[in-house]
Amino acid sequence: MDADVCAMSLATLSKALEQRDISSVEATRACLTAIDEHDRAINSFISVEPDGALEQAAIADEEIAAGRWRGPLHGVPLAHKDMFYRAGRISTCGSALCRDRVSSVTAGVLQRIGDAGAVYLGSLNMSEFAAGPTGHNVHFGHCHNPWNTAHITGGSSSGSGAAVAARLAFGALGSDTGGSIRLPAAMCGVVGLKPTYGLVSRYGVMPRCWSLDVVGPLARTVEDCALLLQAVAGHDARDRTTDMAPPPDYRGALAGSIRGMTIGVPTNSVFADVDADVQAHLDASLRELVALGARVVPVELPDPRAIYTLTNLVNKAEAATIHAQWIRSRFDEYSLSAVNRIEAGFHVPATLYLDALRLRAPLLADFAARVLDRVDAVHMPVLGIPVPTIDASEIRSTEGVPELMERITRYTRWVNYLGLPGLSVPCGFTANGLPVAYQLLGRPFSEARLLRIAHAYQQATDWHERQPDLLEAVHDSA
Amino acid sequence: MSIDVELILRQAHDLQNLQLGTARAAELAVEVTALVDTAMRAARDAGFDDEPDRFLYLLHALRDPPLT
User: Fold this and answer.
1) Dihedral, A448, A84, A328, A100 alpha carbons, nearest 10
2) Does a structural domain hold residue A26?
3) Domain membership of residue B62 as a residue range
C-alpha cells in the first residue's frame, strides 16, 4: 500500500486527495515510512519533521472533508532544499556555519506552498551554500544517486533530485544559479525547471549569486512541475526583480498540440563532443518530438563558451561578496570544495564584473535575434557525459576534477546569464544504468510553451515512469 | 565615512592565504580581460546601449507571447 501511494505522481495523488480516495495522513505516513526505509542509502534529507508533517496532513484532511479544498497541492507531502528560510527554524544551507542558525523570516515560496495546503516533510540535502554541481557535502554527507549509489546526484539541489526520484516526496523546490535544478533532475531521472529570472520570488532564500539565482520545481512529471510552478510563480513585492504580470495557466497549457512548433538544434562545436551513448538518447528524443509534429531546424548559438566565462565572472564576484565576512572570520568552517569556488571571486576586478553585467543586455538581444526569434525552443543536452561516480568527482581525490566540473556545467551555466528558462526532461539511460535528459530552452517567460512540448513527449514515452530499485542501489554501493 | 585600515589589511592577508595562487589568478585575469574586451567591442559595434537595468527591461520586452 505505502509503495503504491509513493509511486503515484503528484497530480494523481492530488486527484485522489480531492476525491477523498486517500487521506493526506495516509500519503504522509507512506512518505515517512519510505524515508525511514530508504533514505539511509541516498542521504537526501538533512532533517525530517514527522510530527509537524502529520499535523499539517491532519489539518488538510479536515479541510478537504469540510469542502474547503484549496487546490492541487492541498495535502500533498513535499520536501525542499534546505535553503528556503522558515521563521524560527534552522536552514542549514548545507553548511557547518549555518548548522544552528535560526531564520527570522519565511521564504515567499514556502509561504505560497504552505498557503496552498502542502505538507512539509523535511529539508533536503544540498551542496554547501549551493556551490557545487555534484551533490558532495562533507558536513551532512554526500547525497547518493538512487539509480546507483556510487554515482553523484548532481547539485546543488542534490536532495531535491534524489528524494523525488526515490519516491520519498511528491515534489521539491530547488534553486538554480548555473544548473543546480537541471543537473540533479537530469542525473536522477526527474523533471526540473529553471524558470526565467524574475518569475519566482527569492525573498527569504539563501543568496548564491543575486544576478543569476532562480527558484524552481523538481518533480516526477512535467504535469507535476506545472502544478508546483503555478503555486510559486508571480510577483512578490519583497523581491523587486519579480515579474508584475500574472502567470499563465501552466497546467492548462499542457493540453495543446506541438504540431508545427519549431525546435532548434545547436550546431556549435561545443556540442560536438557529447558522449555517443548520451547523444543517441538525445537523438531519439528529437525523433519523438518530430513524430509529434515538431519541426527541427539547425541553429548556431552565440558562442556559449564566451557567455560561460562571463557567467563565471558574475557568479564568482557576487558569491565572494556574499561570503566575504564569513571567509574572513570563519574560514576554517568552509569545506575546501566550497571555498575553492567562492574565493576566486576575490580576484575579479570590479571593472570586469561590471562589464560582464553590462554585456548581458546586448548578448541577450543577440541570442534572441539569432536563435529565439527563429524557434519555439532549443533542444540540447543537460549533461553531455554519463553521470560520473562520487569518487571520480571528489575534489580531493582526482586530477582533472576542474575539467570535469566544466564538463558537468557546460550546457547549463550560461543559460542563467541570459536569464532564460530551461527545462530538464528525462529521455533514457546510458549503459551504466544512470539517467539521461534533454534540455529545452526558450524565450523569457516561455515556461508554458516548454512544459507543453515536454508534456507531449512524456505522453508518448515512459522514461518518467521508471523507478529506481533502492534495495538494489544499496547493494551496489556496498 | 572613515576607512577601516585594519579591515583592509586583514582582507589583504586573507587573500594571500587563499587557495588560488596569485600567479594563476593573474593569468586568468589576462585571458578573461581579453575576452571581455572583445565582447565589449562587438557590443559597441552593434550599437551597445548602456542604459541601467537594460537587461531586466529586455527580459520583459522579449517575453513569449501567450500560447494558443
Assistant:
1) -160
2) yes
3) 21-68
Residue B57 lies in a domain: yes
Would you say A187 and A150 are in contact if contact means Cβ atoms under 8 Å apart? no
Do residues A424 and A192 touch, judged by C-beta distance below 8 A? yes
Give residue-wise pLDDT tens across range A110-128: 999 999 999 999 999 999 9
Tell me whether residue B34 is in a domain: yes
| Average pLDDT, rounded, for chain A | 94
Q: A117-126, A315-324, A467-476 — which is least confidently predicted?
A: A467-476
Is residue B7, in this structure, part of any structural domain at all? no
pLDDT tens figures, B15-48: 444 444 555 556 666 777 888 888 888 888 877 7
Mutate to test the interface with B, among A359, A395, A420 (most CBs of B within 10 A): A359
State if pTM tops 0.80: yes
- Provide the number of structural domains found in chain B: 1
Question: B2 to chain A, minimum CA–CA distance in Å?
Answer: 19
For chain A, give the longest Cα–Cα distance: 61
If one counts the domains in chain A, the total is: 1
Cβ-contact A222, A254 below 8 angstroms? yes
| A156 is annotated as an active-site residue | yes
| B25, B49, B63 ranked by CB distance to A347: nearest | B25
Burial A308-333 (b: 16+ CB within 10 A, else e): bbbbbbbbbbbbbbbbeebbeeeeeb
Q: Do A362 and B68 lie within an 8 Å CB cutoff? A: no
Q: Whole domain around residue A77: which residue ranges?
A: 2-306+356-477
